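Students often ask what a 'structure token' actually looks like in practice. Rather than answer in the abstract, let us consider Elongator complex protein 6, a protein of 264 residues. Its sequence is given first.
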Amino acid sequence: MDRSLNLLDLALGFDQEQADASPLSGKLVLIEDCVETSGSFVLHQLMKRVLSPHSSEALIFLAFARPFSHYDRILRKLGCSLSTQKANNRLVFFDMLLMKCSGVEETKENASAVAKLFREIQETVRKLCSVANSNVTVMVDDMSLQEIASTGNSNQDHVLDFLHYCHTLTSESNCSLVILNHEDIYTSMERPAFLLQMVCLADVVIKAEPLASGLANDVHGQLSVLNKGISSNSGRGSSRNKLQNFQFRIKDNGIDYFYPGCRS
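Now compare that with the structural description of the same chain:
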């Protein structure tokens, strides 16, 4: 087994031979976190893997939460320069904070903005696939903010439409779709339809949670990785869900993953 692989890599199937294809190709990966335990580090780790020198993949990143400089600073600590990846046409960054999405009154205009955004993503996927003939990963950080940022008025129907649009890329272009969502912002209300739909559509659900036993100095939280098992590429394989649980510790230049009680 490749010693460079960590427990998260193994849970996602990166130990399996895929003939140059990512084990996440054609799949929707949902990352859920909470206020006490952010799951952003999982997104950063997957960004690094997609943009690895050993990979031929390309990345489309939709940033509703932070500016480009934030991700570039973090990825540099992990040994990856996003500025270089942009220059090499392996990264296309949609900075939604810079795209003026002021409130619009007309529903048709809101829906049009969502459709326009997806068309831009769709065209970018086509260009990346035709130029590099590579797998493309689409990442969204984070979907709970997209509810407001893309429509201007928290219209959940438009977020659901956008989710369905993006999900078509997994089947039409064999893209990986990775979405971060803050689960606990909806605890005081009924869970919106787009959140329920994301959980239903997801092939892999990664949840970052605080330790059940409370705070610890050397353990920052726990991850659960639910792999629904059915291959979205072939439709064959096991239909059994596979759940794996382990803990993590966040460092400046990486993450330690380990089973409970096994940290060295």
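One point worth highlighting: The radius of gyration is 18 Å. Ask yourself how you might have guessed this from the sequence alone, and why that guess would often be unreliable.
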